[in-house]
Amino acid sequence: MEPEIVFEAQQDPTFYDAVAALPEGERLRSCLQCGSCGGTCPVARILQHTPRRLFAMVRAGMKREVLTSLTPWVCSSCYACTVNCPAGIKITDIMYALKRMAIKEGLQPKESDANRFAEQFTDVVCAHGRASEFEAMMRYMMFSHPGRLLGKSAVGLEMMGRGRMPLLPHRIQGLESFRRLVARARELDEVKP
Ligand code: SF4
Ligand code: SF4
Question: Which atom of ligand 1 lies nearest, measured to the CA of 38?
């Protein structure tokens, strides 16, 4: 990994407080920089920054570097780091919060468009009340990689043949209530600092 040099003028002194104000963010101030999080993470090998390093960057006001990091998008939400953190930091929840912040700020990792897939996936869940892998994948490929759609079709067809990816989405009962719930949650998220 190439070393990051960030000059003081590029740092955002308000960023640490902004992250601390997120749900479960305040505990971040207790980070001991012990590294247990990275040591227990099953995907540490492919994380751009371990949680320990990412939180040190938050503390240093490296807003752009944190919000464009691949780490929150690669995190598989297994909660191993959260369970093992001696400071009781809800690391996984902070990863989600950083993703929401990155989307709001219009920032995304340079090396990946995982955030676009996440947005398509969320839209599908909002439309049906549950996930539809086929629709999420189709939307993502059509909007982000239309030229690769044909090349991936063999995998999709095989999954469908094995009953692992139904063509039609299943809708939940009470879909309207679910949509109202999501709309309210988004409204609340908007008014947060
Ligand atoms: S395990 Fe917790 S205290 Fe230790 S570096 Fe990670 S976040 Fe900080
Ligand atoms: S929740 Fe994410 S960061 Fe934490 S151990 Fe699991 S994959 Fe790693």
Answer: 6
pLDDT of residue 98: 93
Domain 8-104, second-level architecture: Orthogonal Bundle (1.10)
User: Does position 81 have pLDDT exceeding 70, yes or no?
Assistant: yes
By C-alpha distance, which of 130, 120, 135, 123 is closest to 166? 135
- The radius of gyration of the chain from alpha carbons, rounded to an integer in Å, stands at 19
Our answer on whether the CB atom of 37 is closer than 6 Å to any ligand 1 atom is yes
pTM for this one?
0.79
Q: Which residue out of 74, 85, 95 has the highest number of ligand 2 atoms within 8 Å of its CB and is therefore the one to mutate?
A: 95
Structural domain spans, the chain? 8-104, 114-191
> 155: helix, coil or strand?
helix
**pLDDT, averaged across the chain:** 88
